[in-house]
Amino acid sequence: MQLDDHAEDLASDLGVDKAEVKDDLQSLLEYNVPVEEAKASIRRKHGGDGGSSATPTTRSLADVTPDDGSVTTTVRVLTKGTRSIRYQGEDRVIREGEFADDTGRISYTAWEEFDFEPGDSITVGNANVREWEGNPELNLGTNTTVAAAGEAVETPYEVGGDRDLIDLEPGDRGRTVEVTVVDLERRTIDGRDGETEILSGVVADESARLPLTDWDPHAEVEAGSSVRLSDVYVREYRGVPQVNVTEYSTVERLDRTVEAPDTAPRLDIGEAVDAGGLFDVELVGNVIQVRDGSGLIERCPDCGRVVQNGQCRSHGDVEGDDDLRVKAILDDGTGTVTAVLGTDLTAEVYGGGIEDAKTAARDAMDKEVVADTIRDRIVGREYRVRGSLSVDEYGANLDAEEFVESADDPAARARELLAGVAR
Ligand SMILES: [Zn+2]
User: Fold this and answer.
1) If you measure from the C-alpha of residue 402 to the centroid of ligand 1, how many angstroms do you get, rounded to a whole number?
2) Strands 145-148, 135-140: pairing kind
3) Whole-structure pTM over 0.70, yes or no?
C-alpha cells in the first residue's frame, strides 16, 4: 500500500482530515517506524484503541508473507537484542532478534517490553508482518500478546547469539562474541545528544578482524584485553560489518586469551564475496584486467572523488588534484573482486610517483600511457592482496593495503610454465 492509501484508510476509520493524518504518518515513517506501528500510534492519538481491523491468521513461519496483515504464531526465541532509537523525539528501547519453529525462522522487533528470553517457547498473538529487504518480519506492538507455549517448540536452529566474527552480518542483533581488542582509541563525536565520548577500534578472534564501536565506553574494553561482548549489534560501516557495543551490552573480561592471528584470514574470492564484506582479508588471484579510471587520475580537492572532464559529481567544475590509482580485477576461479590500490601501492607497481607519471603523460600527450604501463606489468600475473572487502551496489571492492606478487606455490607456477612451453 502507498502512503496515500494508508492515510485514506486511517482518515476514514477515524473520521479525521486526511492531510493531517498523512503528515503524521509521513513524519513517523521518516523515523523508520514500521507503517503498522505508525498507524496504531496515530489511531491512539485520535482516541482509537490502536487496533488493526484485520483478524490475525495462525501461521507456521515458513508460510508468513508480507501480505499477511497480522499473524499468530508459536515459536522458539533464538535471540533477543536491546537497542534504543529516537522515536518522536524520545528515546525508546526496542528489542530485536529472531524466532524459529520447525519450518523456518523470522526476524522480529518488539516495540513494547515482553516477557521472553532466548530459548523460551511462546505463542505470539497478533503480530504485524512487514517486509524488510524482501523478507517478512514480525512487529510486536501494543496489540500483540505473548504467552508461554503449551509445549517446547522444536527447531533445527541454534538458540542463542554466540557467533564467530566471520559469521556476523549487518542487521544482526543480540549477538555474543569473544574477542581480543587489538586496537582502540577514545574519540569525541557530535552525537544526537551533543558531544559524546566513544571507543573506536578493531577486535579479532581466530576467524576474522572487525571494526568495533563502544557507544557507552566500558572500562573492560581496552587494547590487548580478551573480552566476552554480549548483546551487541552489527551494522554496515563503509561496506563491512561493524560490531556495536551499547549501554545494553554486557562486557566481561575473559580469563583466557582469544588468539588473534597477525595475518588476515585467506579466503577464496567467491567465499569472501558471499560473506558480504570483510574488514581484513587476504585474497589470491590473477589480475585479468586493469579497469578504466586507473593510472593518473584527478581528484576533487573538496571531497576526494575522482573528477571526470573537470567535473566533480558533487562540486561541479573543479581544479582537480593529480593522484595515482589502480582498479584491478582479481580472479581465482571462484569469483572476482576489484582490488583498489591507492597512491603508494600504485606508485610501487607503476615504478614511479605522481611526477613521473605526469612526465610520461606529457611526453606521450596521453594520460592513458600510465594505465597502459601498469597493465603491462600486472595483467596475467598472480597477486596476494590484503585489505578491506566491501560488497554493495558498487560491486565487490577490495581496498588494498598489501599487493604482492604471489610466490606461494612454486609447483603450480612450474606447471603453468611447462604448460606454456608445451603450447
Ligand atoms: Zn567534490
Assistant:
1) 28
2) unpaired
3) no
